[in-house]
Amino acid sequence: MKKSGQERGLAGLMVVLGMILLAGMLTGAYVMTHYGLYNSDGSRMSAGDAFDYTFLDKPPTPTPDLTRDWMTYPSKINHYVIRVPQGWRVDDSVGSFINSSGEVVFTPPAGLSLDRTTAKVTVVALTSPNTRYPLNSRDQFTQWLNEPASPSASERIFKLANAQLDGLEAVEYVSRSLPTDNGAQYYNIVTWLQKDSINYYIELSGTLDQVNQIRDTYEQILTTFRFAN
């Protein structure tokens, strides 16, 4: 039986589409064979990887907010907010640390401590020099921002890194005792920033072992620091 003109046209279109598809597959195979696509580590992509890379738009995996359920502390005196893990003790009574206005001490539960004296995180804001924080001038701040990290066995105070708190530049440094010192040994990490002629110091203090135990938590606490409007 003879096919109608419409049927012959449809069959011809299917043949053309098939030839186009076959040509595309052959061209892709030729490119992969002779030129190839490569991963970031220099290895050649497989055909499946190349298809995935070219045609699939994968959304980035969201980073979980580990501080979302933490306790928020607002400082009405020094005008900032900061978050700490649930269960940490908060002491913002006068004289709780170095007797500065608005100071606050955050202490983890006793179960985190290695002995009777636990590490703690403190936040102070100073408008005048204090012997605990010999770094306090604008010139010192600019100098330390521009210096490289400089850990040394002989330095009592040394820079760890630059940081950012609430979009402002900050300096992270260590203040510690030396093995030859008499008395109790200490190891303090201080994150220092300046705003409106005020020095802010967020300090993790304790022994070296205690500080290392909650160092990661301290770094997460820093990410929550915000100045209040």
Q: Going by CATH, what is the homologous superfamily of the largest domain?
A: Mog1/PsbP, alpha/beta/alpha sandwich
Give me the strand/helix succession. HHEEEEEHEEEEHHE
Number of helices: 5
Q: Numbering strands along the chain, what is their spatial order in the largest sheet?
A: 3-4-5-9-8-7-6
Number of domain modules: 2
Largest sheet, strands/sense/barrel = 7 strands, antiparallel
How much of the residues is beta strand, in percent? 25-35%
> What would you call the shape?
elongated
Give the termini separation. 85 Å
Into which percent range does the helicity of residues fall?
25-40%
| CATH architecture field of the largest domain | 3-Layer(aba) Sandwich
Characteristics:
229 residues; alpha+beta; Protein Transport Mog1p, Chain A; 5 helices
Brief overview:
By secondary structure, this protein is α+β, with helices and mostly antiparallel strands.
Structure overview:
The chain has 229 residues and is an alpha+beta fold. It has two domains: 5-55, no CATH class; 71-227, Protein Transport Mog1p, Chain A (3-Layer(aba) Sandwich), CATH 3.40.1000.10. It is built from five helices and ten strands. It has helices at residues 5-34, 47-55, 138-146, 208-213, 215-223; strands spanning 71-75, 80-84, 89-91, 104-107, 120-126, 157-165, 168-176, 187-195, 198-205, 226-227. The strands form two sheets. The protein has a seven-stranded antiparallel sheet, with helices on both faces. It is elongated and about 95 Å long. The relative contact order is 0.12.
